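can u pls check wat happens w/ NAP
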Amino acid sequence: MAQAGAVVGICARRADLLEDVARACREHGGDARAWVQDLTRLDELEGFIGQAEKELGGIDMLVNNAGIPKRRAIARLTPAEVDLVMTVNYLAPVHLTLAVLPLMLARGQGRIFNVASVASRLGGSGESAYAASKAALGVWSEALAAELSPQRIVVQVVYPGPIDTDLVNAAGEDPPLAARAGIIRMPLPDAVAALMSQVEDGSFERWVPDHFREIYLNKVQDPEGAIATASTWLVELERQVDVASPNGAPR
Ligand SMILES: NC(=O)c1ccc[n+]([C@@H]2O[C@H](COP(=O)([O-])OP(=O)(O)OC[C@H]3O[C@@H](n4cnc5c(N)ncnc54)[C@H](OP(=O)(O)O)[C@@H]3O)[C@@H](O)[C@H]2O)c1
């Protein structure tokens, strides 16, 4: 987006990495601002949007990209883990959206781009909490798009499959579902190119890569078959966890 000339505002928790990204944005022709903001602090997010709006001179587009994984077999999943993944992946985007929307409505235009996941619609074994958080974001996006399109607010959602980022290798998580299912991870530049083309064409929904949409449509035709396939992945997951740690703790 910086390469396309945008003023980019980014937030995350790690200040050093934020500054690296902001510097790269400037080097690629855009301007950038970075703020350290922990998105689990939901009560701070309205103030954060106000500050960002002031410093940027307006917000044309909100990208809800930050997210965390939760790969944990249900028998070992804790309520605190569910709360955290729901907060980062669903409630934070909702709070940010509710804070930015009045500003966009007052200007008569705006765009909200939500990064969901194939897990939103393909609930794989061992990913119940993550899938539920992304499903919530997906259906929230659909309802928002329907409600806001007459008011010139564009809402978009993307459902990416496995991409080669830190998220798939995060510490403390069970092994990735993609590895169990034999799915190849998409290189990050390919995923970014697909997302940018969606930003440019303005389409509401995109699956990246597109064949996951076919898998989803097949699931709708045969839900029992899809669950039988996904359950075989859980058996393999448990085997990997047992091998890694005899007491059953996640590796
Ligand atoms: N990689 C995949 O296979 C895949 C597939 C489908 C969807 N997605 C989605 O794509 C999005 C980007 O993920 P990624 O793959 O690029 O993973 P990533 O490399 O781990 O990036 C996640 C980003 O979220 C930020 N973040 C996490 N917790 C935060 C918090 N509490 N407050 C503020 N920022 C926070 C992280 O920064 P800090 O840690 O510095 O806060 C980081 O910048 C996520 O929504 C993810 O669910 C990824």
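Helices lie at 15-27, 45-56, 79-107, 128-148, 177-181, 188-201, 211-221, 223-244.
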